[in-house]
Amino acid sequence: MSRFKSMTAGAALALGLAMLAGTPAQAADPLQAGFVYIGPTGDHGWTYSHDQGRKAVEAKFGDKVKTLGVENVPETADAERVFRDLATKGYKVIFGTSFGYMNQMEKVAKAFPNTVFMHATGYKSGKNFGTYDIRTYEGAYMLGVVAGKQSKSGKLGVVGSIPIPEVIRNINAFTIGARSVNPAATTRVIWVNSWFDPGKEREAALTLISQGADVLMQNTDSPAVVQAAKEKGVFAFGWDSDMTKFGESAHLAASVLNWSVIYNETIEQIAAGTWKPKDIWYGVKEGAIDISNFGPGTPADVKKLAEERRDAIKAGKLHPFTGPLKDQAGKLFLAAGKTMPDADLRKFSFYVEGVEGAIPK
Questions:
Q1: Rounded CA separation 267/271 (Å)
Q2: Other Cβ atoms within 10 Å of 90 Cβ, number
Q3: 37-51 pLDDT, tens per residue?
Q4: Which of 37, 76, 117, 278 is in the most buried spot, having the most CB atoms within 10 Å?
């Protein structure tokens, strides 16, 4: 058994930092952790939620850890430059928070074997290169349950970002959740091909509303969809964080991410010398995601139902992707009682029954 297991987390961290620095515990330099973001921390969505996780690290570890967040880093060679710069400056762990950083992180990780690299939503790994993600589809499913209950037309809309498996999976889970309470519900998707573009997000939301959608979900990062819903008198959800202040009565609930569960755990393991690369995919069970911030337009019984579904997911009694499930063409792809394996969830490339339209090539 590691001697750190008999200590408090704080004591293990202090000793681990001292060992990393090669100096007495009281003189140890802080462990440096870098966070690289695809968008601005003020997007109120994906990047905002990651930055809240960074701040939680600072709050937990105090002066034992020094963090830095780098905003608006595109998924290009520029990302490689940022990762390399942080590693050169002595950062012990670097978190890359967007799927498109994967190849750049892998390259830099090989050049800096003593630095830990953690990539969000990716699938590549190495000796000092791990992956992490949150089961956002669990949040999408819970929002779908609320949407199915609240929609009068049965027509739902989703503003999609980029057609990768992660986003397709969320759209499908949302639709499955909605159809679990309203079998006639359908979902229409408009893709904006961007994670953060408030103008395009707003335009897509308005188009969906004009096509009859009266409840909207998004897999984009700004509150533009919630704002458009409020303007047009329909409903929407906060995505990745609470967006109540942007929609007030239009805001039904929010799928809120808690990245600190992963960040704090990783920092502790690095400091204690126990970190090993692994594939982290946390969800409701681990406290990494929740449905919360219900708005005034959400009836008490609907809130209760959503929370019951959440509790069932947490207890392992409910999985959003449990058969029988059919694809968009009506073909059974998951038999009754079967649960879709993580390996298949990660490579979703088709819509489930109830989603209209085609996935862009």
A1: 6
A2: 11
A3: 999 999 999 999 999
A4: 117
